[in-house]
Design a protein that fits this description.
Order of helices and strands of chain A: HHHHHHHHH
Number of domains of chain A: 1
Helix content of chain A: over 70%
Order of helices and strands of chain B: EEEHEEHHHEHEEH
Structural class of chain A: mainly alpha
Shape of chain A: elongated
Helix content of chain B: 25-40%
Strand content of chain A: under 5%
Strand order of the largest sheet of chain B: 5-6-7-3-8
Oligomer: heterodimer
Structural class of chain B: alpha/beta
Largest sheet of chain B: 5 strands, parallel
Chain lengths: 218, 204
């Protein structure tokens, strides 16, 4: 399983691996928001946490359709399915690799982009913590969506439609935790709820994803 | 342990295509599947490899002992030849890759990106993967596609080495590999097309 993780990270970082796509998209969204809502620092400060969360979620969504499709196209998924690795483990490792190459960089640049949005001083820690707790769930749910649509040519649209409703709880609690933190309120309740969602997703989704993958590989 | 397939029926796209297939594969032996295009060789191999369920019948002795190779080699264009092999060696429990590189004459290409290889070289790398898996049963679907005569000979040698080590091979191929092999023609096992309707009919 470690070999699979190392391979996926290596592939993501080499040319054509798509590393940086989500990051660039996140940057574009956050840079363009002040232009579109106008130069009102108070308004920007109020929506900063929500914009950061929405941008991170969409950036995550952007790279999902390649999560399993690449391995399916070149036959590697068939070979992994016939290898001694449990398919649940394969899906989990691919989600972890996706998070390390997409989610983690988003978490790390969020404070820098917060400056562009006039994020209040109290908001930096809650935004980073909520993103760090929430983005793993986005990657794992995305892996489930990718497993559902793996055999479909240009399945990206269907994948987005399937995954979006599953992203809603994470977005609600994540953005709420970040917003409350930025406003100087206690953010522990939404933070704990979101951590609970992430824990559930990581515990259950690999099994669901492996089950649909087995059906799709037939 | 033998691979024993008894009264196996397989389907593709909901259509039963083979029924009543039985064979046994002992260590050290090879079974070559023959039949025209669309006769169900690939589906039979995928079923034996565990990628799809059988309609009926039993497969014994296959669990976690199979190295499967199909038309697609599962190579990563951005990784080098050695990195591709190292990955599969690690997934299957880590044998050395040097014998596989030598057996398929890939030594000089080890540091090249797999994406820069020719079709035949990619195929050789895909077949070299079998050697690093260390699995006793090789299930191969048209392994000699895009190989030249010299590479086919390399492949036949690799299979002989595998058999000598107590392994076995189930190969769907049209060309003569020069191996001591039993031949199973799947044509007589063609399933009747309505064999699967029986369940649905109860609801119609």
């Amino acid at each position: 399983m470690r070999a699979l993780l190392v391979r996926d990270l290596r592939l993501a970082l080499r040319a054509g691996g798509g590393f940086g796509l989500g990051l660039a998209f996140f940057l574009i969204v956050v840079v363009l928001v002040p232009f579109s809502v106008g130069p009102v620092p108070d308004l920007l400060a109020r929506i900063a946490a929500g914009v950061l969360w929405l941008g991170a979620l969409l950036a995550c969504l952007l790279s999902l359709d390649r999560l399993l499709a690449v391995d399916w196209e070149d036959g590697a998924l068939d070979l992994l399915a016939t290898s001694p690795l449990p398919l649940e483990g394969v899906v989990l490792v691919k989600a972890v690799a996706h998070w390390l190459t997409t989610g983690l960089p988003l978490v790390l640049v969020a404070p820098v982009l917060g400056i562009l949005l006039n994020l209040s001083e109290a908001g930096y820690v809650p935004v980073v913590v909520s993103l760090a707790l929430g983005t793993p769930a986005l990657s794992m749910i995305g892996a489930f969506g990718a497993a559902l649509t793996v055999g479909i040519k240009r399945g990206g649209l269907l994948l987005s439609l399937l995954v979006l409703p599953l992203y809603v709880p994470t977005l609600i609690f994540g953005a709420e935790a970040a917003r409350r933190g930025a406003a100087g309120l206690d953010a522990s309740t939404p933070m704990l709820l979101m951590a609970g969602i992430t824990g559930c997703v990581l515990a259950l989704m690999p099994f669901a994803a492996a089950a649909v993958l087995r059906v799709n590989l037939r | 342990m033998d691979l024993v397939v008894s009264e196996l029926a397989v389907a593709r796209g909901g259509m039963p295509i083979l029924a009543g297939v039985s064979f046994a594969l002992a260590p050290g032996s090879t079974l070559v599947l023959r039949g025209p295009n669309g006769s169900g060789k690939t589906t039979l191999l995928r079923t034996v490899a565990g990628l799809q369920p059988a309609l009926s019948g039993r497969i014994e002795g296959a669990n976690e002992r199979i190295a499967y190779s199909a038309h697609a080699d599962g190579l990563k264009a951005a990784l080098t030849v050695a990195e591709n092999l190292d990955f599969w060696a690690a997934v299957f429990g880590g044998g050395p890759i040097a014998p596989a590189l030598d057996a398929f004459d890939l030594r000089g290409l080890a540091a090249r990106r797999a994406g820069h290889l020719s079709a035949g070289q990619k195929r050789r790398l895909g077949l070299a993967r079998l050697m690093v898996t260390g699995q006793p049963i090789w299930v191969l679907d048209e392994p000699t596609v895009s190989l030249d005569a010299a590479s086919v000979a390399l492949f036949a040698n690799a299979v002989r080495g595998h058999l000598a080590g107590g392994g076995s091979a189930l190969i769907a191929t049209h060309i003569d590999l020069g191996l001591e092999a039993d031949v199973l023609d799947v044509t007589p096992f063609r399933a009747l097309a309505n064999a699967m309707d029986s369940v649905d009919e109860a609801f119609l």
